[in-house]
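Hello forum,

I keep getting stuck at the same step: I have a sequence, I want structure tokens, and every attempt I make locally crashes halfway through. Rather than fight my setup again tonight, could one of you with a working pipeline run this one for me? It's a single chain of 151 residues.
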Amino acid sequence: MPDSTISEFADKIEEVVPAVMRELSKMQTNELFKGKITLPQFFVLNHLYRQGESKMSELASVMEVTTAAATGIVDRLVTSGYVVRLYDPRDRRVINIKLTQKGSNAVQKINHQRKQITSEVFSKISEEERRSYLSIMLHIHDILMEEREGN
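Reply #2:
Ran it on my machine without issues. Output:
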């Protein structure tokens, strides 16, 4: 791309990124892209897979939503059999959320397929391009995290 303004760059990014995301999502055949699990639900499942049990208030905080919104997401996951609620016997107001085996299997399957798709797509570009891409994405991530902490 020859010299361009930041506005022209932004226009091109706005055109390309949604198209790339759409094509990547078409490649997936798992529960996430069959509509069985929504992105917010997957976020909860993936968080529980990585962190273990979590209190409802912690989930809401991590997702940056209200406890009521997190409860709605978890309700649907409970109904689908992906998670269970565990009540603290000492204080029934404390509710922990835990993955079921079905939930754990779904996360593993989705993450495995995402990794396969990423590997397949990125194997078609050079190692140098992959390193550059990763470096830029990590830099963007750092900028976004700094801005988030500043707000």
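The chain has a mean pLDDT of 90. If your local run keeps crashing, start a new thread with the error log.
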